[in-house]
């Protein structure tokens, strides 16, 4: 990559959200902001190689985008005066009260992740407006037709405008719920990328984990005191650290216990551990830990063990107990049972897992866990049946490959 | 910004019928705080009549334009600065009415 190309890529990473956010605030219209930002970057691609990279790329891009937006509004005003009214709707109100956190990008994130929008829409809109991914990129990453993705985003922008979804950071009393809504969007983006394993997967899908981490870092920078933001970032880093070890060269999923721990990314692990320590200190000082923080702590225990045999399972179990109190979902109970198996043996764990049948009979991991616990007790036949069911239900090729091999190893 | 706030009831699982006093109190508050534009409860959907005069002559049909389990039981029109304010009030309205609420902006 040439220096100029690199500068453009860097500017896109660093400045896209800032430009869209500043323009949305000024013109009160996401559509105008998005289009003008895209045009400004296209202009940079044309001009920077010849003119050189401007000393302050962000300011250059904002100025250029502003000009593009004004051009569009002028064009449209000539056509239709009603447009003008619509565009000025936001502009003439009294200025919004400025909270402790005043960053246009944060407003943008809260607007894109508004609870009045469907979850899929929030995801798409956040990746487009905040992440700067193109519509075809988002469509490919989520295995959706480009036209369908375009429609989804267009409809969302129209709803934001028509229903007047506000462009602001929520009030303090609404902040925890709204932040947790934003984190849910980012975690979904991350998981979509993380679960997209296997050698034939589109690299853009893998790119979603990096994008989710980048956006979570941004929110962390904007809301440094929020424990769940730190928790989610740590969880993502500690999960991402194991990415290469998680799939074998043959495209088979490698479970945590069998991973080559030397292949884990020590930089990401160190960063994740730092965040977890920060939250542990806060918890010791009386802060209540949310579910991302606890999940991050569980991952910290796993990644602290150089060998799977060094895993502090009682610590893992204690954390799951804490998590169960916060979120009594059967999936968490299932994961807790895996820790129980290590401490109290597979028989005790199996009894706990079997109690979840009503709720998890359609979930592949339920059957995979049972299969493993049965195998460890020497119940080959029952184990095989459970593997069969797990393979039937697993949607992911890497996982199917692993389960099939495991089943075929049974005697 | 004005919003049409619809109260949705379900024929097979109707909300409780003792909500009137609570709704009155809520309305008084909406008026005092400047959100209230209009409100009204609706008679049963059986009382509706549909008129179609797009053709040669007006055709009247008995009953609502769409027959469904869920139906509109009442409406408000609110004046609110943005959707967040409207949604917050709507969340209260849903509790007060013991029914689902739809919030839809006017053009």
Automatic annotation (TrEMBL), chain A:
InterPro entries: DUF6596 (IPR046531), RNA_pol_sigma70_r2 (IPR007627), RNA_pol_sigma70_r4_t2 (IPR013249), RNA_pol_sigma_r2 (IPR013325), RNA_pol_sigma_r3/r4-like (IPR013324), TPR-like_helical_dom_sf (IPR011990), WH-like_DNA-bd_sf (IPR036388). One of its GO terms (molecular function) is DNA binding. Signal peptide: none annotated. The keyword Transcription regulation applies. SUPFAM superfamilies: Sigma2 domain of RNA polymerase sigma factors, Sigma3 and sigma4 domains of RNA polymerase sigma factors, TPR-like. Gene3D superfamilies: 1.10.1740.10, Tetratricopeptide repeat domain (1.25.40.10), Winged helix-like DNA-binding domain superfamily/Winged helix DNA-binding domain (1.10.10.10). It holds the Pfam family Sigma70_r2. Residues 18-78 form the RNA polymerase sigma-70 region domain. One of its GO terms (biological process) is DNA-templated transcription initiation. It comes from the Bacteria. This is RNA polymerase subunit sigma-24. It comes from Streptosporangium minutum.
UniProtKB/TrEMBL annotation, chain B:
InterPro entries: Dimeric_a/b-barrel, YCII. Belongs to the YciI family. It holds the Pfam family YCII. Residues 1-98 form the YCII-related domain. PANTHER family: BLL7171 PROTEIN (PTHR35174:SF3), BLL7171 PROTEIN-RELATED (PTHR35174). This is YCII-related domain-containing protein.
């Amino acid at each position: 990559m040439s220096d100029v190309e690199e500068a453009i890529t860097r500017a896109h990473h660093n400045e896209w959200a800032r430009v869209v956010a500043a323009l949305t605030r000024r013109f009160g219209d996401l559509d105008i902001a998005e289009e003008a930002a895209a045009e400004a970057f296209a202009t940079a691609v044309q001009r920077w190689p010849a003119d050189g990279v401007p000393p302050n790329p962000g300011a250059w891009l904002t100025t250029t985008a502003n000009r593009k937006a004004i051009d569009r509004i002028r064009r449209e005003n000539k056509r239709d005066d009603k447009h003008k009214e619509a565009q000025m709707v936001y502009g003439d109100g009294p200025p919004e009260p400025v909270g402790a956190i005043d960053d246009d990008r944060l407003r943008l994130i809260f607007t894109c992740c508004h609870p009045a929008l469907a979850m899929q829409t929030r995801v798409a809109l956040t990746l487009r407006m905040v992440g700067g991914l193109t519509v075809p990129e988002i469509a490919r990453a989520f295995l959706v037709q480009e036209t369908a993705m375009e429609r989804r985003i267009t409809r969302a922008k129209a709803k934001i405008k028509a229903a007047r979804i506000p462009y602001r950071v929520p009030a303090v009393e609404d902040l925890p719920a709204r932040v947790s809504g934003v984190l849910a969007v980012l975690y979904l983006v991350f998981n979509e990328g993380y679960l997209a394993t296997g050698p034939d997967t589109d690299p853009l899908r893998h790119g979603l984990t990096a994008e989710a981490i980048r956006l979570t870092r941004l929110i962390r920078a904007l809301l440094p005191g929020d424990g769940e933001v730190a928790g989610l970032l740590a969880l993502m880093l500690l999960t991402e650290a194991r990415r290469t070890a998680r799939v074998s060269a043959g495209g088979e999923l490698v479970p945590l216990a069998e991973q080559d721990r030397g292949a884990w990314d020590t930089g990401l692990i160190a960063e994740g551990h730092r965040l977890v320590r920060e939250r542990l200190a806060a918890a010791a000082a009386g802060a209540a830990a949310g579910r991302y923080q606890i999940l991050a702590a569980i991952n910290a225990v796993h990644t602290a063990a150089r060998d799977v045999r060094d895993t502090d399972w009682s610590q893992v179990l204690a954390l799951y107990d804490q998590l169960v109190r916060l979120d009594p979902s059967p999936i968490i109970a299932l994961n807790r049972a895996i820790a129980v198996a290590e401490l109290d043996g597979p028989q005790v764990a199996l009894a706990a897992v079997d109690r979840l049948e009503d709720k998890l009979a359609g979930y592949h991991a339920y059957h995979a866990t049972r299969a493993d616990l049965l195998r460890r007790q020497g119940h080959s036949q029952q184990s095989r049946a459970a593997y069969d069911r797990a393979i039937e239900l697993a949607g992911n090729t890497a996982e199917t490959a692993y389960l099939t091999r495991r089943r075929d190893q049974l005697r | 910004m004005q919003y049409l706030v619809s109260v949705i009831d379900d024929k097979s699982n109707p909300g409780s019928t003792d909500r009137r006093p609570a709704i009155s109190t809520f309305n008084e508050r909406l008026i005092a705080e400047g959100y209230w534009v209009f409100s009204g409860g609706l008679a049963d959907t059986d009382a509706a009549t549909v008129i179609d005069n797009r053709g040669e002559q007006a055709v009247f049909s008995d009953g609502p334009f769409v027959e469904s389990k869920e139906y509109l039981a009442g409406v408000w029109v609110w004046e609110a600065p943005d959707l967040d304010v409207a949604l917050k009030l709507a969340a209260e309205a849903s509790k007060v009415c013991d029914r689902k609420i739809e919030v839809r902006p006017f053009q």
